[in-house]
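Entry:
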Amino acid sequence: MHDQNHMPSRWARWVVAVVAALTACVGFGATTARAELSLGPHQAVYEVTGGPHLVIDLGPLGRIVSTSPLPLGLGVSVTVQEIPADLTAVDAPRTLTAMSQDLDSYLQFFDSPQQTIDTAARALIEDAVIRAVGAFAVLVAAFLIGRAVLGARRRGELAAAIAPRTWQIAGAAMLVVAVWATSTGSVPARRTSEPAEASMVFAGTALEGATLTGRLARVIDTYSGQLVGLYRNNSGYYTAGRENLEAAWDEADARERAAADVAAPVVPDGADAADTTLPDGPPQPPENTLTVLLVSDLHCNTGMTPLLRTAVARSGAGLVLNAGDSTINGTDVENVCVDSFSSAVPDDVPLVVADGNHDSLLISAAERSQGETVLDGSVVEVAGMRILGDRDPLETRIGAGTTAVREETPAQAGERLRDVACEARDAGERVDLLLVHNPAVGDAGLRSGCVPFQISGHMHKRIGPEAIGYGLRYVNTTTGGASLGKLSVGPLQYPAGMTVLRFDTVSRSFTQLREVTVDPDRSATVGDWEPMPPAWPLPGYEPVRPGTPR
């Protein structure tokens, strides 16, 4: 007979049962988490394991084994899909040709491997939480159904039989969960008998200390040194560019402060000079001013991420605008580029994007998952600014050309956006900005008098600000440093540019801009503030409103 004095109370039994259930659910979620992401140019399946390793399974090529980025001693198994057949044979001409076809994607991975690892870890943790919550919900539902089926009398009999064994049952359940969690998904046995030694080609990268097996070891030792060499050169190149950008910003701040000193009022005789002393620190914008940082045409050049982070911080931007073409082909393996660029913008600074012809709906989804505001043809108010815009009606794919993805031409898309802007103006809520990728899409809105200011990218060079109809248009150059018709992965091929704009929140108009440029030789320039030219109708233009013959 069990000692009633040592039998846990009813509430204690409930607490033990809930804790055991939660533990089991968390263990289930943590050890079964799964995510489908990318690794370089390949699709990959990421799964949590019980061992403390990151294991990248490349099929017939072999495996990479490194330290896991997950907490609690959990590991990650990465199964790379669609390995090209040419890469399974270590043959110099065929292997190098096959690798060179995906060189840009491999370099993007080597350029920011930590971003890939962080993205995968975050996705696995999110999936683990979802699975744990789902498992707990199933247990609760099963408990409630079982409770109803058993009835009060049978439940009492079972409680009387189980209560004295509460601690034993809970302990056994915990032990089963612990054994199952630690035994699930340990590092699989090697496919080959080759020794696994740390590869020297990863030294100094986020994969330092990783071991290689199978044919992969021979391929990596032969060819990936070229990629890692590019990674190291790339890292040093953009580090120098960021340092030069910091120095250029210091010089620009000094010029602005000196100009403010010259313009400071003369201290009257007998007045306290301290009353007119300008504050220390970076020059402050005029009162009622929103500072905006504009980027466009990044084209997956994640080397620019640290410089973008510097520009956001040094400009004091309260809003970041992206005029599109963040990626090259709009594929989901390029989500790592979206993640990288998004990481440069603090959580408290909103980021608004109008996707371009090199982006896609997949990229839009990735941007939304990062908390970005993706324009979709309606007016949004962000940071006190009313913004209208939409994704580009065309899509361009390398090797496949440009195709229409909507049942409208760029001109028709522009007319649709014009009509939305005019409806907003008639309702007393005029849009402050039209943000589109292709400058031509905004012409109808500017000529209508319903759009005061338009921002675009696409041309890979600065144009304007110039008067179009009754408004102003400004085209940002490429922030990714790619000349028109070419893509930039690695050192800049062309000056990379960003623009800082000032928006007066009282008059609801853009008042100033300054251009920020990083040249291919890694030098940087932060320009002086330029006043925004006045907008007036060009000769012969009359407002073109909806319903007006054109």
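Confidence is low (pLDDT under 50) at residues 83-103, 185-195, 274-278.
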